[in-house]
Specification:
Blueprint: H1 6-35, H2 39-48, H3 54-81
Length: 88
């Protein structure tokens, strides 16, 4: 039987969060390079058009998901750093 202590679980979870933060931020950075702006400006641009550009809408949906994921993992990282965790 393998025994895993709470400290090891916390360390693993922190490493996973850092990985997910890096992954999301890298995807966001690539969209910023591709479109030459931040997400908010791109969102305003795409929503103000009367005609849809399907490739841009696909990118918009993906970019929005990576932005949400980044904010979620950033919040999780802060919770762990502040000791605001619960093991169920």
């Amino acid at each position: 039987m393998t025994t895993i202590d709470l400290s090891s679980i916390k360390t693993f979870y922190q490493a996973n969060i850092l990985y997910e933060l890096h992954n999301a931020s890298e995807k966001i950075r690539l969209f910023e390079i591709k479109y030459g702006c931040h997400f908010d400006a791109f969102e305003k641009k795409i929503k103000s058009r009367e005609e849809e550009h399907f490739t841009e809408w696909d990118d918009y949906i993906e970019w929005k998901a990576y932005t949400a994921a980044y904010l979620f993992y950033l919040s999780s990282k802060k919770d762990i750093e502040n000791g605001n965790i619960k093991v169920a």
